[in-house]
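So, does this match?
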Amino acid sequence: MNIATGSLIWLPTLYIARIKALGYGPEIAMIVAAFLYGIFQVGGTLSSYFGYLGDKLQRRSYKARALLTAVFVFLTMPLYILLFIFPIDQLSLPNTTNSVILFFSLLGDLVTNPWILTLFIISLFASAAQSANTPNWLALITDVNLPEHRGAVFSIANLFNSFGRTVGNLGIGAVLAILSMYLDSPSDYIVTMTILQLPLIPSALCYVIMAKYNVRDIHKVKDTLDKRGKIV
């Protein structure tokens, strides 16, 4: 999954290319792209709610948390692909590099321009779907591992998370170098970032497979802790 999320660090670069394609200068494009990237992460604030929802469903079935996360991980892919390909039309920006003026102009477009508003709504759902992974993934690590193993497992998870993000980040550069020979900007960025979202499919499938084994593993952990409690 982190191959896909690691590639999203290139999202501002995609928006720079798209805003420049509208005729704006590179300085304006860089400032506005940074603001768009920040605004489009708002859905991530729903992470705590998805963690709570996972807790609630997990009380009904030990499969629930993994299956819930599988659904949102899978939905993340088409939502981000839609975010990449959705056009930025009728964007009206003042001819200035003053970041404050550009920010408020962008907020105005967010309210008055249906294209920008729709783009924001797509980004809201995309970043929200992505945010469902982290709290439930961490909770599952806790659920299926004994206390004396959790630190090691968290470390291994962080190692592979970092590795995945690095692969995703470098993968964009490698794929982009090839596609840029055949496609013009920003189409090369759009296709490249779309390809790097495909690892979300096996990620979701892994959660589905995981759900089956969670029941067994959680019962084992609870039984072991129950035996230890009785001994104490």
